[in-house]
TrEMBL record:
Highest taxon in the source lineage: Bacteria
Compartments, record wording: Membrane
Entry's transmembrane regions: 6-24, 94-114, 121-139
Highest classification ranks of the organism: Bacteria, Bacillati, Actinomycetota, Actinomycetes, Kitasatosporales
Protein name: DoxX family membrane protein
Amino acid sequence: MQTMWLSGAEWVAVLRIGLGLWWLESWRHKDKKTWFTGGGIGWAVGIAEKHRWQFVRAGFDLTVKPRPQVMAYVVAYAELALGLGLIFGLLTPIALVGGLVLNLIYFVLMIHDWAEQGQNLMMALISVVVLFAMGWQVWSLDDALGLFQ
């Protein structure tokens, strides 16, 4: 593949790093004090209670609602780990699949909020492209360590 400035693999690495920065920004912009004291999950409870799909309400009530503090930490630090993993290219395929799953969860939970959906769909699309283009081939610790050859 012939491209301007960078090789195809390098452009995919740019996408990977950009996606990592996007996840890092998702973590950075959270008000941690409010988030970890129930603000983030409390907001999601209100969304889940009004959700149009019963399976989403039931799944949220079973998994997230009984553990608001634990889930707040899981969500926040998952976003941080995804961001760092993608930026540095460490365990990249795992980070891409994890990010795709998290985006799909956000997408389903926020199905009625179209402003939020654009971000989740775009991040999911980038994850799929980088995953299938094997975006860990250049500019990554995975490549330097010989992982996922």
